[in-house]
Amino acid sequence: MAQHTVANRAISIRLACSAFNISETCYRYQAKLKDENEIIAHHLIELTEQPTDWGFGLCFDHLRHIEQEPWNHKRVYRIYCELALNLRIRPRRRLKRHAPEPLKEPIRPDQVWSLDFMHDQLSDGRSYRLLNVIDDYRREGLAIEAGLSLPALRVIRTLNQLLEWRNKPLAIRCLTQQCCSGPEFISHEFVNWAKLHDIRIDYIQPGKPQQNAYIERYNRTMRYSWVSKHLFDNLEQVQDYATEWLWFYNHKRPHKANGGKPPLMAA
């Protein structure tokens, strides 16, 4: 209003500021872009070029906890919006569901492991499967096993390899045959292996995947990060990429459940 009055009423700046009760410093202030803004913009563009599923939260957590940058989240978010890096939010479908049993959150490592399968195709059209194993406490990825077929004996072999360097869990959470595409988790070999190692098997209720929410969210992260983005020629390429991504997930990728820190950086 003061600037409009000076420009159109031909009065002095001092009189206009006095009339509108503002200081001349405020009147003459002009915002100056700092060189740091360009640095922040450069970091944000780099972070969103490769893992395109990262939103503002993951980008800011990476800058704060991995890069150790001190920038305020409001400032970073303003630049993030100016660069139009916002992800499109998919509207949620509201479905009426019966209340499932509550998901119990573990309080220490190696208390509960979760297992699940994923499916995709190679470039020649052959289907392959991925066995995912995570520790529910800090959402740490323990193993990703790729194969055209993953019977119960392959599942047991993967778990035995984990037990060579990890403490055995008290329980393993997995799906029943009614929820899954195969009977690996209810086979006699798998059940007998769990009894032999004194490990409890927690089957979720049929039709209630939210009871296995930790690994379902992990599967979604894998799907959007690399499984759906790359077309592999053979299983060796799948296994090599999965191993590299698993290290990145545990050491570099921020996780909201851990306060914005990667699983192996969380206390």
TrEMBL record:
Pfam families: rve_3 (PF13683). It comes from the Bacteria. GO terms for molecular function: nucleic acid binding. PROSITE patterns: INTEGRASE (PS50994). SUPFAM superfamilies: Ribonuclease H-like. One of its GO terms (biological process) is DNA integration. InterPro entries: Integrase_cat-core, RNaseH-like_sf, RNaseH_sf, Transpos_IS3. Residues 105-267 form the Integrase catalytic domain. This is Transposase.
